Structures
1.
Amino acid sequence: MQFLICFLLSFLALETAFVLPAHAMEYPESLSGLVALKGMQQQSKDYEIAMQNNRPSLIEFYADWCASCQHFAPKLKAIRDRFPTEINWVAIDIDDVRWNSLIREYRVVGVPHLALLNRDRAVRESWTGEVPEAVLESAIAEVLN
């Protein structure tokens, strides 16, 4: 994990040395957001495994290039840290073609897109864009009860 973070930081530092990304002025914390996004992806539960257990799931559809996804990642990580084992945390990269059928199934039209599933795999709530922490925490608490 540390190697990945160092690699990403080195790569991004090299990239920004030549061209400042368009979203860098809008989201100055985007570098830490990208690191958080990649960390959450690595720690996420595999979709197929998540669908086999009896826990609710939060599926995050994201893209590495998405400035809103990067901006939202540290906030989502903070929520994840408050509910680390109670629900399945699943991260789906929309640029990975193997997930095209899931993208259609969950009607993803923009990123970040979150789908909160109850224990029987029915979609309880879904959001596109950055969700206020209080709204997401409340929905998670409801699905756990």
2.
Amino acid sequence: MIDYTFHGVKIALIRKIKNRESETENPIYWRITYQRKQAYYFTGLKFDENEWDDFLNRKMQKHRKFKESLQSFFEITLRPVIDQLAVNNSFSFEALDALLNNRTTTSVNEAFKKKIESLEMEYSIGNASIYRTTLNALQRFKYYQTLRNRKKNSFNYARKTNTNRKEKTSLISRSTSNSRN
């Protein structure tokens, strides 16, 4: 249906088979290929093998809305973004994601990675290694924060469980002592 190539960027609409059984419903994706690397964007549609064949090769009324929707998304959104990035010779999957998701802000990690790349392109290897070390320290800090929070939560859960057990034990011992009297 849609197979488009522009400045080394190829767009195709595919049915991605996740397991050997192609008879089950499988999702339909936009496959974007650039420099032998691929990215997949889910369309929201799922078809089995026969229905996918009908979708591609036959003009059926039940597929008309889907085809129009995919075609308009391609013409209005996907194609202009890819053309813009390819013409400026700045195509990357990160830039494509940013434009498709209307992200203009970057995270700290993304900013560090871009700075490292630019320093390496300028052969400032020493500065790039300092930035890389700082980025690794930030990522480790975030990881240890999550571990610390997990430990606190599990400690609080264990303390609550032990408290509940002690209360149940004391209630049982009270009830048995009362029944003996």
